[in-house]
Write a structure and sequence with these properties.
The complex is a heterodimer. Chain A is of the alpha/beta class. Chain A contains 6 helices and 13 strands. Chain B has helices spanning 17-26, 44-51, 72-82, 95-108, 214-223, 231-235, 266-269, 289-292, 301-311, and strands at residues 3-7, 33-40, 56-63, 88-92, 112-116, 118-121, 124-129, 134-139, 146-150, 165-168, 179-185, 199-203, 226-229, 256-260, 277-282, 295-298. Classes of the chains: A alpha/beta, B alpha/beta. At the A-B interface, helix 3, helix 4, strand 7, strand 8 and strand 9 of A face helix 3, helix 4, strand 5, strand 7 and strand 8 of B.
Chain lengths: 249, 314
């Protein structure tokens, strides 16, 4: 079985303007729209396209999170994933723990490719793919905007500060995906019905022997410093004048 | 006492300015000693530049033919090995450091602090979360190595005038061959580097086409500025990806940022909130960009931009 494993994280929807809780312990997530991390959606779409080209047999979606994360895994199944696993926990799971969980699932599931989002838009850590590749002692290619699979290798284009970088990696490997890799498909109603019959297994975080308590302690969460209110100018002359006063032109 | 190792970013001959920002961040930890690590084929020239940064003690140079390109799977085991005896290992939060440092952290069996924006103490840091819409103060264990990336826009570059000593080292670890560099393509525009420029002129979807974007290049050249873009402009194919500013692109802190035809999605704003002066030009007076702008002008950018160029004179 040629299997692709994809990570699916439940996060606050990217359109939500998050607010910091008044007691500074975190951000408000109650009653807020939750979605699949957008980068994970792109990873899943890429896995599905690779399977549709006949280069893989099964797409496995893995989530780590609360019971409600089943919603996002059901969406993943509706998009086309063949089955899903939820590693259930109410604790916050830091990237190294997530990587350790994926590492153990890899032993069991033997994927030839792991596709993950390059970062989750809640914590913005951008660590799990690289950590997983290190623990697995396999190649990593982060921020992929193009992926080609052939002859036991992946040829990828990565978005880097200098432009685009092309790497060739032996499979199995961990690829993290960037925004321009693809545009995820929309889920159709019949697919949502079909997805209800697909297998979604739940495991407990305790099954993995990964510490429940994160090693890092949240001291506090604050809103970002606000910029002072600016001025509106009525024409270019006023604009250039304002810039000159500031010594900027 | 803190002993900090910073992984230098370079292109084989020149030290990337991100390294001087990391040195500056490390120097905020009181009483810290700061060493740099240059992984290269022949790191002598880069090491000399690294040694001249104020506050740097030693520059470790690990020369190896395998270090010709910055491949994380090749560099990480060397960094992890040479990190022995250090309390902190820092790298820049550029695509180089973002690729490499989590791999180093995992090899060391520790978590990573991504995007340090402020140092509270040797083990307490501030970092942005939710695209910069919240700031997390995080405390990390003091009995393990602290691996972190430094948000370069948050720190001034360390000054010149240092007199570090250069020392050759050999990590003596087996390096993998499973990851191979093929090619790199990038714009060699001759314009200032977006990440370190003092002035940036950026355009959005409203420019309408790659041709439309020419007025951005023209104004940038007049101002001696770098060119940036919103994700929408990159997605639409008007400009290459390396011009993207924002949560998933470059985080910048220029003296002057002129946003032209950019609406100001939160993902874009997180990339520019450290800019000293933000100028916004947009035909929609309700665009969120105006909430953050120091100077705003509502109107047609195709009329306004050439007019600015004319009025700032030669």
């Amino acid at each position: 079985m040629r299997r692709i494993m994809v990570g699916v994280k439940r996060v606050v929807d990217y359109n939500v303007r998050v607010r910091v809780k008044p007691d500074n312990t975190g951000v408000v997530t109650e009653g807020v729209k939750m979605s699949i991390n957008p980068f994970d959606e792109i990873a899943l779409e890429e896995a599905l396209r690779i399977k549709e080209k006949g280069l893989a047999d099964e797409v496995l979606a893995v989530g780590i999170g609360p019971a409600d994360a089943q919603q996002q895994l059901r969406t993943a199944l509706a998009m086309g994933a063949d089955r899903a696993i939820l590693v259930q926990t109410d604790a916050s799971v830091p990237p190294l723990s997530a990587a350790r969980i994926f590492r153990q699932l890899i032993d069991k599931e033997q994927p030839f490719l792991v596709l993950l989002g390059k970062q989750a838009i809640d914590d913005d850590n951008g660590q799990t793919p690289q950590m997983l590749a290190a623990l697995w002692d396999r190649p990593q290619a982060v921020s992929c905007s193009k992926v080609e699979i052939a002859d036991g290798k992946a040829t990828v284009t990565r978005e880097v500060d200098a432009g685009l970088e092309m790497l060739e990696v032996d499979l199995p490997a961990v690829l993290s995906v960037d925004l321009r890799l693809n545009e995820p498909r929309y889920v159709k109603l019949p697919d949502i019905m079909k997805a209800k019959k697909k297998p979604l297994d739940t495991m407990s975080l305790g099954d993995f022997g990964v510490a429940e308590a994160p090693a890092f302690r949240t001291v506090r969460v604050d809103p970002p410093p606000q910029r002072s209110k600016g001025i509106m100018v009525k024409d270019v002359a006023e604009l250039v004048d304002a810039l000159k006063k500031k010594g900027l032109v | 006492m803190s002993k900090i190792l910073i992984v230098a970013e370079h292109d084989g001959s020149r030290l990337n300015p991100s390294t001087a920002k990391c040195v500056s961040c490390a120097s905020k930890i009181s009483g810290a000693s700061i060493d740099l690590l240059v992984l290269a084929v022949d790191g002598a020239a880069v090491a000399a530049q690294a040694a001249s940064l104020a506050g740097v003690g030693k520059v470790l140079v690990a020369d190896n033919a395998a270090n010709a390109e910055p491949i994380a799977a090749v560099l990480a085991p060397q960094v992890a090995k040479l990190a022995a005896g250090y309390t902190h290992v820092f790298g820049p939060s550029t695509t180089f450091g973002k690729d490499l440092m989590p791999r180093v952290a995992a090899l060391l069996g520790v978590g990573q602090v991504s995007d340090i924006m402020a140092v509270e103490s040797a083990h307490t840091f501030k970092r942005p979360i939710y695209a910069g819409n919240a700031v997390l103060t995080v405390e990390v264990p003091s009995d393990a190595a602290v691996v972190a990336t430094v948000r370069v826009a948050s720190f001034e570059a360390a000054a010149q005038g240092g007199s570090g000593t250069v020392e050759k080292v050999d990590a003596g670890v087996a390096l993998p061959s499973h990851t191979r560099f093929v090619s790199r393509s990038g714009a060699t525009s001759g314009r200032p580097d977006l990440q370190t420029a003092n002035r940036v002129v950026a355009g959005g979807r409203a420019l309408g086409s790659a041709d439309g974007f020419q007025i951005i290049y023209s104004l940038a050249d007049k101002l001696g500025a770098a060119v940036g873009a919103s994700r929408a402009a990159v997605d639409a194919g008007y400009v290459p990806n390396d011009l993207q500013v924002g949560q998933t692109g470059k985080i910048i802190a220029p003296e002057l940022y002129i946003a032209i035809g950019i609406s100001g999605a939160i993902q874009h704003m997180t990339g520019i909130k450290d800019a000293r002066t933000i100028v916004a030009i947009n035909k929609d007076g309700e665009a969120p960009i105006f909430e953050a702008a120091d100077i705003g002008l509502v109107g047609d950018l195709f009329t306004i931009v050439p007019e600015i160029e004319k009025q700032i004179g030669g």
